[in-house]
Amino acid sequence: MRNRLLFISLAAAVVVALVATANLWMTSPRTVEETHSHLAYPAPLYKVAKRITLKELIDVANAHGIDLYLPTKMPDNISLVAIYYKPPVIMLSYCDREVTDYRYDNVTIQISMWLHTPPSLEDLKKIAEKDPDNLKVLDVNGAMGILIEKARWGNPELQEMYGSSPYAYFWLGDHYYTISATPPITSDQLIEIIRSMKPLRG
Hints:
Order of helices and strands: HHHEHEEEEHEEHEEHE
Radius of gyration: 16 Å
Distance between the termini: 26 Å
Largest sheet: 8 strands, antiparallel
Number of strands: 10
Oligomer: single chain
Number of helices: 7
Mean pLDDT: 82
């Protein structure tokens, strides 16, 4: 996972956990904290994960019975340049150039392979109320979550390089997604990327 300040989304998710009943969170007994701790590897994901092709991703999705959603539109000349696979994480790296480290791409999407039940719209609104100038409820084409318009990076080098930039976490098709972007991509463009997400078909 990109070194975005993980505690931003984790803290928001914990707030949801406090106001929502347990069965509104996930179909498995794992807690939100456990989910995030499994998604955060001690080494950067690009170093420990297997790089796979789109065909192999389709095979993974079919083998596990997962309906994956991928964006069908990207700004400018940005396209899919790498797919990283390390169960339970799938990470998609989008860029307008070749990169070997997803931290320096344009858009990163991470998907949890575990089944998740999204919180209610009311619970998401309670999160957004904590910081109305920066947190927005996301509800587009079945994707429900929180948009952070100016999220900070967990890495000082990246924070200095990019400054605060848009980030979102959301639930779509019974799975948990995060999406982050580097400038000059705006929060409005991030929403449009999410809006364009369609089921991956073989």
